[in-house]
Design brief:
Elements: H1 19-26, H2 29-37, H3 52-59, H4 62-70, H5 86-92, H6 96-104, H7 119-126, H8 129-137, H9 152-158, H10 162-170, H11 184-192, H12 210-219, H13 262-268, H14 272-280, H15 295-300, H16 313-325, H17 370-377, H18 380-388, H19 403-408, E1 410-412, E2 415-417, H20 420-437
Helix pairs in contact: 1-2, 1-3, 2-4, 3-4, 3-5, 5-6, 5-7, 6-8, 7-8, 7-9, 9-10, 9-11, 10-12, 11-12, 12-14, 13-14, 17-18, 18-20
């Protein structure tokens, strides 16, 4: 009635909103059609560049999208704030039908926003498998990466979109693409075994679990012995923390990850199920980090941060048993390099230049063994098992700490950790050994 009486078809309010924009927000196809027939501009936009097509793509009304396109809407227009397109908005909101409609009208499936994300990456982050399939069918690159190097596959993994990760693998995603977390395998194991979170752990979605995705990565040819090689930042003497992976909850850590394999990460978390999958797939269970921290040492507790590191003691014990069964040297010694450290019985001069050098982590643990790790963790069951298997009780690390000194209390993780029962157990074991030698 208003249009028939000569009402202006495209007035805008103080915010630059037109009747067509409002109709698109409401998804009212009849009103949109009437406005377009009376001359409304299909490319009308807000002052920030949000077009009517973008609005309709976000609300998910494919019929409205078709009307706008039929009247000449620019399918690849970008809004001004983030440089995003209607296809990106539809992908982010999980609107498969709209995505297919836009693709039919030659929407740019490989366009990137100002933040460097493609429509596929928006869809993967949202976790919508039908939308992802539509984009791949429309020519999206399954190996798209974000500016930081995160691939579509790893983006699915770190958001716990496990079924989607499997779909991407089946669609040709590379299981060995480089990643700031090391690899897709490393990312999966970090997500599978979160520590006390600096970032919230994702809630898993889909019909597959993380172990099934691990098997899928193995089946698709993932390099099981790939190592973390990110650039380490110097050990922070105030916070006692070295670099951890981006966007992953692992808890604080004072041990370098450089050189860590997926199996090493699984051992560190006491994740025996993952360890077995990796070994069965051909992973080498004896590969240590560049500091020569073996999977056994990591499982026993070398680098453990009480209350933050993943894995319960019983899980760690089973991981320790498996690493020994698979050939880890029970008395292997961590070798961080550098000169001996200046330390008293209980404390370390953390300002020592070698302790602040890059790629070394906390130098206190150079020269340590798996038994030092078990003492640091206060894990009596692991201490007993290691000694039973031949671990040396009186070995000293580069700071002069024996496992007993560690259990009695050393300054680590911003506080002095003492494990009275572990110290008592080690003394008892030492007395028993001495008695047996007489």
């Amino acid at each position: 009635m208003l249009l028939g009486a000569g009402a202006h078809v495209s007035p805008s309010n103080r915010y630059g909103v037109t009747p067509l924009s409002v109709a698109c927000i409401n998804g009212n196809a009849a009103i949109v059609e009437a406005l377009l027939k009376h001359g409304a501009d299909p490319n009308t936009s807000s002052p920030e560049g949000e077009t009517a097509l973008m609005t309709s793509a976000r609300t998910g009304r494919a019929d409205v999208v078709k009307l706008l396109l039929a009247h000449g809407a620019n399918v690849n227009a970008k809004e001004g704030w983030h440089g995003q397109t209607a296809l990106m908005w539809a992908a982010a909101e999980r609107h498969e039908a709209v995505v297919r409609t836009l693709l039919e009208r030659e929407a740019d499936v490989r366009a990137r926003s100002k933040g460097g994300l493609t429509p596929l990456l928006f869809a993967v982050r949202a976790g919508d498998i039908p939308t992802v399939r539509a984009l791949l069918g429309g020519g999206a690159n399954v190996n798209d990466t974000a500016p930081d190097g995160t691939s579509a596959l790893v983006m699915a993994i770190i958001n716990a979109r496990f079924e989607l990760a499997s779909v991407l693998l089946d669609s040709g995603a590379s299981p060995n693409a480089s990643d700031p977390r090391g690899s897709a395998l490393h990312a999966l194991l970090f997500v599978r075994n979160p520590g006390y979170p600096a970032v919230p752990s994702p809630i898993a979605s889909g019909r597959l679990n993380s172990l099934e995705v691990l098997r899928a990565l193995v089946a698709h040819g993932a390099n099981l012995n790939t190592r973390i090689d990110w650039k380490e930042i110097p050990f922070d003497r105030d916070d006692g923390v070295v670099k951890g992976p981006p966007n992953i909850a692992i808890g604080r850590n004072f041990q370098s990850f450089i050189g860590a394999t997926p199996f090493w990460l699984a051992a560190r978390a006491g994740d025996v199920a993952a360890m077995r999958v990796l070994v069965q797939g051909g992973a080498d269970p004896r590969l240590a980090t560049t500091q020569n921290v073996t999977p056994l040492m990591a499982a026993a507790g070398l680098g453990f941060w009480d209350g933050e590191s993943p894995g319960a003691e019983q899980e760690a014990l089973e991981a320790v048993k498996l690493t020994i069964e698979l050939g880890n040297d029970i008395n292997a010694v961590a070798t961080f390099g550098g000169p001996p450290l200046e330390a008293g019985d209980m404390n370390l001069r953390t300002a020592h230049p070698q302790n602040l050098a890059g790629s070394v982590g906390d130098m206190r643990w150079s020269g340590s063994t798996a038994l030092h790790g078990a003492a640091l963790r206060g894990a009596n069951s692991i201490v007993s098992f290691l000694v039973e298997k031949g671990a040396t009780l009186d070995v000293r690390n580069s700071a002069g700490f024996t496992p007993l000194v560690v259990a009695e209390g050393v300054f680590v993780a911003n506080t002095v950790k003492t494990w009275d029962s572990t110290a008592a157990l080690i003394r008892q074991l030492m007395e028993t050994q001495q008695a047996n030698r007489r």
